[in-house]
Fold:
Amino acid sequence: MSVHKEVKRVTTHVLQEMKHRGEKISMLTAYDYSMASIVDQSGMDIILVGDSASNVMAGHETTLPITLDQMIYHAASVIRAVNRALVVVDLPFGTYQGDSKEALRSAVRIMKEAEAHAVKLEGGREIKDSVDRILSAGIPVMGHLGLTPQSIYKFGTYTVRAKGKDEAEILIEDAKILEEAGCFALILEKVPAELAAKVAKEVTIPVIGIGAGGDIDGQVLVVHDMLGITQEFSPRFLRRYHNLYEEMSGAFKNYISDVKSGDFPNEKEQY
Structure:
């Protein structure tokens, strides 16, 4: 007799229905149990366990150093906190490019060991074989086009992508290739708003943007950026909803002061 956990409310099918009825999709990153619990309980539709953990959790300059084992650790922590959102996990650099069998092994590990709901891959036609093989195992795949941070050394800059006609046409073609392959959704990062809107109209799957304008199906941000924990990163597309850096710094300084002065703990705070 099998034991079934409660089915997650947000599924790939639900996201497709949201696009059809014009309801915007909300998506944020999370990398640990405590933060994921708050994000999920807020009513977020999708939680991305992004390889941006390499930056905001581990302090690396790029997303390239993070390993599959580390991504599984973060993803498993997030999954244990989530009751509603769809949890998508990035396949890290070097675990899917150029080898579709390796891509499937990586995706299977994430699904089995972290109990994730879907995986995300960066790139277009060049990763189609990997997408096909992962989908053949019944694993949902989210695509990612535009600025693809795992290719930062090829681009040489984090500037807006696909501003030229040729690159824009390639991006549209890649979006259609990923849709036809069976991807359930697509991330567009740092592309002109007009181009993103065109992609969202030409494909039937949800298109979620980060720095891709508002005429698409949803938005995603890095939680540390939108909460104001990271201060050195201020792109045009980022809206800060809080200044946790300032608030946390103040709390830490108050704690230090109370410890130094002997005010903490007081009589009510001891046994």
